[in-house]
Specification:
With 91 residues, the protein is of the alpha+beta class. It has two helices and six strands, in the order E-E-E-E-H-E-E-H. The strands form two sheets. It has a four-stranded antiparallel sheet with strand order 1-2-3-4. It has a two-stranded antiparallel ribbon with strand order 5-6.
């Protein structure tokens, strides 16, 4: 079953995280898959600013620099990822 969460949204998803069973990948606004078979850790590396995502046209997206209204809340992100094969909570 596929689920989609907008990672960056400016009048439409610029980057979206797709969950297909336990497989995660990122698609850009052009419908291209820009990251395949990523992990929950990879997603959090993007969200915390440790890594960037480059779309299929070469635009580099830096999650931390995007407007707060263009990003999902950490709660929504957690809810989306909580059942992807591992426990993301370290407490």
């Amino acid at each position: 079953m596929k689920n989609v969460l907008g990672l960056i949204n400016y009048e439409g998803d610029c980057l979206k995280l797709v969950k297909d069973n336990d497989t995660l990948y990122v698609k850009d606004q052009y419908g291209q898959t820009v990251l395949q078979n990523i992990t929950v850790e990879n997603v959090y590396e993007f969200v915390t600013g440790d890594t960037d995502i480059t779309d299929s046209k070469g635009k580099v997206w830096k999650f931390a620099l995007e407007h707060k209204d263009a990003k999902p809340s950490l709660f929504k992100l957690h809810e989306f990822l909580k059942d992807v094969g591992i426990n993301i909570c370290k407490y």
